[in-house]
Fold:
Amino acid sequence: MVAIGAVLLAAKGLFAKTLYDMGLSFHDVAAVRSVLAVPGFALLAWLSRTKNPAKRVATCRRNDLLLALFAGFLCYYLGALANFYALTIIDASVERPLLFAYPIFVVIITTLITRQPPSARVVLALLLTTLGVALVTGALNARLSASQWSGMAWILFCSMSIAIYTLISGELTQRLGSGLFTLAAMTAAALGMAIHYQIFAGWQNVDLSGPAWRTLAALVVFSTVLPLFLMAEGVRRVGASKASLISTLGPPATAIMAQELTGEILTPAQWLGIALVLIGVMALEVRRHPPT
Structure:
């Protein structure tokens, strides 16, 4: 489930780039996508509802729902806005590897909470990932423009929000179920997006072409609703750490799709960077959860 979700999510940046070429702003894409996705999440929550409602009601605490709302607002409102804005500055093939460095933030947050220093293996993984990110984004290139550096910073903020979301979902999907957790989180994000869009653009001004609506529908179904539900269900079944490891299929999937569909060309240094990111994250996750 996680692998399928990761590959589907990998296409999000490509859909966004296509919509930008059609004249949509990142506000348009982020807001319309978020609002249109809520009915899909509601349907999946209903279809995946427990066969024992009494048990689910007993475990569905108010604090759990509030935490799910917070996770969705942080990751899929604030984080998504940062993500879509960054895609107006940098290529999709650069955006994905940066996003999928989020397990590193998981380790950092966990270290701060537990107050236990990371092992040598973890430090090595962090160094590999940092070098990989530098290579794939061209961060070692002094000629990068200020806007490109800004785009990278926005993506890293989004990556951190994903880490927090993953840590929270690892706990709450066990009690709420993946369907209810995802519905609560995405509803909070959609409300934030709806209000934000009304303030900055106005829903009355939405005027999209037929191709734009069709592309948005594909984005919602195939790179929002289905993958996010599959990822949440995967986290519930195998745990947040293992799920984040499997999700590293996303960056190479995006790179391949970007080359085949949009003509973006990856340099050998970028391929090496992607490999280092994946190796670093995999070493990190394997260390944290050795085979039993």
